[in-house]
Each structure stands twice: as C-alpha cells, then as structure tokens.
Amino acid sequence: MATIKDLAAKVGVSVATVSNVLNGKPNVGAAVRQKVLRAAKQLGYRPHRAAQAMRKGRTRAIGLVLPDLTNPFFPQLAQAVENTARNLGLLVCLIDSQGGAVGESDGLILLAQHGVDGVIWCPVGQHVPAPLRTLDRPVVLIDRPRPGFAAVHSNYLMGGQLLAQYALQQGHTRIGLLSGPSDLESARQRRNGFVRAFPKRLDVAWEVRVGFDGVLTREARDTLLRRQRATLIVAGNDLIAINAIHFLAEHHVQVPDDVSVTGFDDISWARIVSPRLTTIAQPLAAIGTRAVELLQERMAGAAIPSRATVFDVTLVERESVKNI
Amino acid sequence: MATIKDLAAKVGVSVATVSNVLNGKPNVGAAVRQKVLRAAKQLGYRPHRAAQAMRKGRTRAIGLVLPDLTNPFFPQLAQAVENTARNLGLLVCLIDSQGGAVGESDGLILLAQHGVDGVIWCPVGQHVPAPLRTLDRPVVLIDRPRPGFAAVHSNYLMGGQLLAQYALQQGHTRIGLLSGPSDLESARQRRNGFVRAFPKRLDVAWEVRVGFDGVLTREARDTLLRRQRATLIVAGNDLIAINAIHFLAEHHVQVPDDVSVTGFDDISWARIVSPRLTTIAQPLAAIGTRAVELLQERMAGAAIPSRATVFDVTLVERESVKNI
DNA sequence: TACATTGAAAAAAACGTTTAACTAGCCTCT
DNA sequence: AGAGGCTAGTTAAACGTTTTTTTCAATGTA
User: Fold this and answer.
1) Is B245 touching A (CB cutoff 8 A)?
2) B74, B94, B109, B135: which to substitute to probe chain A, counting the most A Cβ within 10 Å?
3) Which end of chain B has fewer surrounding CB within 10 Å, N or C?
4) What DSSP state is assigned to residue A265?
5) Which residue among A79, A109, A113 places its CB closest to the CB of B70?
6) What whole-number distance in Å separates Cα of residue A98 and Cα of residue A70?
C-alpha cells in the first residue's frame, strides 16, 4: 500500500504538503496540487485508516448493535444501515447480542476499543449498559425509543390507530390483545394506539402480554384456546401473530374463518404464511437510512438535541382478517 | 481512556516495561509485573486498537461480505460469525453487497482501507473482484466454494443424495428439477447429487434453471403449469421451492396433494409456510463458526493449503412430499 | 581484581497521518 | 528602504503502541 511518504517522494515535496492537498487545505499552489493528485491516483493511494484514526481520533466506522439478526425484523434494517453508511464512506461493525445483556455489553466494549465514531443501537432491555456511558460517542436508537436518546422509529400509535379503524371497518368490536412486553415503549404505543382510538366502540375482551420474540406463554396459549368472546386478535408483532395462528391451527381453529388476527411490522414472513398476514408495514429501509444520517450529523458536529424521528406506517391488508 | 503512559506514570516505570508486561514478554520482574497488572485493572485500561494496528499492522477486525442479508439464508450465518468472532476478540465489519458486483467491490475496498485482518466472503458471481487481490489478506469462502480458495460449506452432493433416496422411499420416480444457477458450484452439486444417485430408477421429466433468489422465470412458470409427468419437484433451494408452491397454489395446484416439492437449506421460512417444507438442513451456525476459526488460523500463521471444510447435512421431513 | 555474562529496565525509533509552528520569498504600503 | 502581510511551502511534534537498542547493576568466572 502506497503511503503519503511515497507520494511526497514521487512528487518531490514534503509529506505535510501532500497531506494538505489530500485534505483540501488552501495553502498550496495549483501546480503542486495537481501533481500530488495525479500521483495519488496513479499509485492508487488510500489513506491508512488506523493512522488517521490515531491522529484525529475518528475511525470512520460505526457500530450497529442488534438483539438478534435471525429475527426477521432486523435484516432489512441492517442492510439499509450498511448501504447508506457505505455511501458515506463509513464502515459498519456488527454486534449481534443474541438478545442477551452481556453480549450487548461485550459488544459495546469491543466497539469502544476499536474507537467507532458512533453507534446505532436497538436496545434489548431497558437498562443502559455501562460501556455505553464510557464510550462517549453519539448514539442513535433504532426502533426502540427511550427518553434522553436520539431515536428513529415508526409511529406506533398511528399503527395502532390504523388497526383499530380497520377492525371497526371489518365489523370487529370484541378484541383479544396479544400485546408485546410492557417495558418496551414501542409495544406500549402499539397497544395504546389501538385501545385508545375508539374506547367506546372497541371492547377489549382479554389481554395477555408476551415477548416480541413471539413465543407464547402458557397463559397466552390457554387464553387463545378459551378465546372467550373476541372475534379479532391483535398481536403486538408479526412473530406473535404467526405463532398464534399456528397454535390455533394445531387446535383446529382456523384463521380467519373462526377468528381474525392482525400483526405488526410486515416482516418477510407475513407474506408467506397462510393466511397471509394483515399487518402494519414499517418503512424499515427508510428507518435504517435515516438513523445513519442522523448519526452522521451528530458525529460531524454540534450537540443536536435528542429528539425522535418518527415515520408514518401503513396498513397492509391481506387475508388474516375476515369481514363480519 | 487510560493509556499505557498513564499506567507507566502511575506505577513509576517506563512505557516499554508496561507494554512488555501487557504482552507477556519475559524480561520483567515479578514485582513490577504485578503492579502494572493491578494498575491496568484499576484504571480499566484497554489497548487503543488504532495504535496497535498502526504498529503491528493487524487490526483484530475481520470483514464479512454477504450478497443479501434479507435472503433468509444469511442471518443465521452472520450471527454465528459475529458471535464466534467476538469470542476470539475479533470485530466483524459487515458488507451487504445487495447482490451487486460493484457493491462487493466497494465493500472490499472499504475493508482494505480499514485494514481488516481477513475476510469471510460469500461471493456473488464467479469472478474475483480486483480489490480482493490487492487486499492480500486471508480469505475464507462461505457456502460457495471455488478452486484455489479455502472454503467451508455443506455437503451438497450428500444433500442431493438424501433427497433422491427419500424420493424413492416415498414412491416418486418422475422428477421435475427447478435447479439453481449452473454457474454456482453449490447449485451444480445439489443437482448432481440428486440426479446421479439412482440414474436408473429416477427419471428426470424436465429441468429448468432459476436464480437462488427464487424468482421464477417465464420458462419456469410455464413448465410448472404444464407440469408434465413429474410427481415430485426438486427445487434448488427453499426460496425456489416456496415460490413454486405459491405459484402453483395460485393456479389451483395443491402441494403435496397434486404434486410434491422439496427444498434445500431449511431457512426459517421453511417452517412457517404451508405445507411446511421438506428440505435439507445445513448446519449454518457450525459453518459460520468454522469459517471464523479457519480464518483465524490463517491470520495467525503459516500458509495453510486452501482446502474446503465440508459439513454433513440432514434431511428434515415435513409435509410438502406425499407418499404415493 | 579484572572482565565477561546475565537480567531488568529505560530510551529511542518506528508505524502513517495531521497540524501547529516556522521560514523564505514576494508584494504593498508609507 | 524597511516594516508588515501574504503565499506556498517546510520542519517538527504529536497521536498510542511495539520493538529494537542501549544502559546499568548485579552476578559469576578466571
């Protein structure tokens, strides 16, 4: 790999001048500038990132900390993040914490050690890992907002409302809720958006909380079987919805004929299960892209106040809800 | 962040000595060694990776270059790679080329610039991108072997054979082949493993080649509808199988009642479609893990000959094949 | 006693950049 | 003509490590 020194030697000029040219500093003549640029191109010069990092304290790499890549929610996000980052010349360093707080913590330590300039983080619990504090770099939360952090996510309230509106349209008023974990803001808002949209007209027959990974607790399974009076089951996300549908099918309850189900997220699975899932689509790619842009702003400069960027969601109607 | 200098000052010893302690060099007294270690722990010292990188020319980071994270085949692989890498103290830098050769090339340039110590690569085409040559770091291919490269992948031949054996068991002898692209070794071996297992007893009624992304060409669709005499369709991977099943369903051909279908890979989707897919499971996590281990060996030392590590596969029987 | 050998530690150089401080030459202004 | 200011450069220091070389004292040997 050619170094700045090689360039300097080749052009017959000092390394400082070469550096100045490469960084677009003004104090260098047009002729020399040209020569340096030409030589750089000719030798295929690429700055040594480690050396730059050492001098400037910036690595032009960012961390992406996710709970679980095999959860079909994340790949699209990761892809969007990587691609926009790369377009900005940023390298993405991946941490998959496997849903564990220790993995998350270890990952952040590793990122800190490598001196990433910022991190995009989808937190797994509700605590703030110690390494994040000492990291002292901008952080943008993704999908899961928290007070005091910059975040980009979907308008969960709106999603809940759209679902409520659609439920009424399709003639459903007796609702069963398979909500996500109550300690996740995103789960709470999905639920509240739905429940508070038409409190008079929608009747919540029952509610059970399960994890976003979709595994059904004993309570959830029992409730589903009893099923009480609900004609529509509103799940906290697609994973939950899909598991519920499968569980019901095993017990000879057909969706949507016997009971309707909605999801949330429009993960890839929603399109391929049967019945295909009526759900709320988030603009995942846009979220990933925006998160990188936001992070880059923060990395570049001034301390921007920590607000959340919220994206509209849309209802995608498929076959898991019956008009009654 | 505490530096080696801080440690030196605190203990009252030179930086060289601190470095020697930290690197386990022998030429330092037991007393001093203890004191340095204690101080390091106390100050929470972490080596500055960029500085180390500059001096040693190693970054303790590796690249992971994938064609498409949203292809459900890759997340598990990526997760396994990240986790084992992290356990070895290696940071994983992700490149998602979106299936394009330019993205792949750009990504490799970015990785080279950051000086990753090696890369795990699932190549998208059959050419070798220029940046890979100049990178001059160990490379381990994953899932898609090529002559002259170290690689870790499944025993595709075996998968094809298992499928052939199972087909006969279930009474199928007239086969339709929806093979993967012929320029991919892995696709060829899947196909050949099947076709050559029982050439006398299995009769290939038709064969069409499609991409591993599963989108059905016009020819594939036409052939599926005519369907000729085949009772079993052997798809090159799960994506193809699932698309075929959906396409057939749209045209009122029921799987497995009217025709049976097998996949390959056992991606997450295979479990949730209906009918659930009978397919070949690859040990994805093991492959990812092994790839990292192999890479690390190569990064550490001697030029090991470039051979392929091959994992056994298993047949997972679900409901997409009917016994006739 | 003189001299080589060893062990423990320090000093200094090096990695590839950036940047602050400096300099030489030229121009402009009194 | 001399002071001051630009312009276009150069020199040198710095970033945090590792590593080579050097120093120094203690020990062993003849």
Assistant:
1) no
2) B94
3) C
4) B
5) A79
6) 9
Strands (DSSP E) contained in chain A are 61-66, 91-96, 118-121, 139-142, 150-154, 174-179, 203-209, 232-235, 260-262, 279-281, 308-311, 314-316
Q: What is the pLDDT, as a whole number, of residue B303?
A: 73
Task: Reply yes or no on whether the pLDDT at B227 is more than 70.
Answer: no
CB-CB neighbours of B31 under 10 Å = 8
CB contact under 8 A, A98 and B83: yes
pLDDT at position A324 is 87
To 10 degrees, what angle do helices B101-114 and A49-56 make? 60
Q: Which of residues 119-178 of A touch B (CB under 8 A)?
A: 134
By C1' distance from the Cα of B57, the closest nucleotide is: C15
Contact check, Cβ <8 Å, B70/A75: yes
Domains in chain A, please, with CATH? 4-47 (1.10.260.40), 59-154+285-310 (3.40.50.2300), 156-282 (3.40.50.2300)
A103 in contact with B, Cβ within 8 Å? yes
Q: Is A57 in contact with A112 (CB distance < 8 Å)?
A: no
B285 in contact with A, Cβ within 8 Å: no
Q: Determine whether the distance from the CB of B48 to the nearest atom of strand D is below 7 Å.
A: yes
> Mean pLDDT lowest for which of A22-31, A157-166, B59-68, B278-287?
A22-31
**Are B21 and B15 in contact, with CB atoms under 8 Å apart?**
no
**pLDDT at site A174:** 95
State the smallest CA–CA distance between residue A99 and chain B in angstroms: 11
Sort out which chain A residues have CB atoms less than 8 A from B53's CB and list them: 50, 53
Preceding omega of A256 cis (within 30 degrees of 0) = yes
**pLDDT, tens digit (0-9, with 9 covering 90-100), for B70-120:** 998 899 999 999 999 999 999 999 999 998 999 999 999 999 999 999 999
* Percent of residues, chain A, with pLDDT higher than 70: 99
Q: Is the pLDDT of residue B228 over 70?
A: no
Mark residue B121 as left, alpha or beta (left: phi above 0; alpha: psi -120 to 50; beta: remaining): beta
Q: What is the mean pLDDT of the segment spanning A80-93?
A: 97
For residue range A130-150, what is the model confidence (pLDDT) as tens digits? 999 888 899 999 999 888 899
Looking at beta carbons, which residues of chain A come within 8 Å of B76?
69-70
- Spatial separation of the C-alpha atoms in residues A254 and A275, rounded to whole Å: 9
Nucleotides on strand C lying under 7 Å from protein C-beta? 7-12, 14-21
* Whole-prediction pTM: 0.93
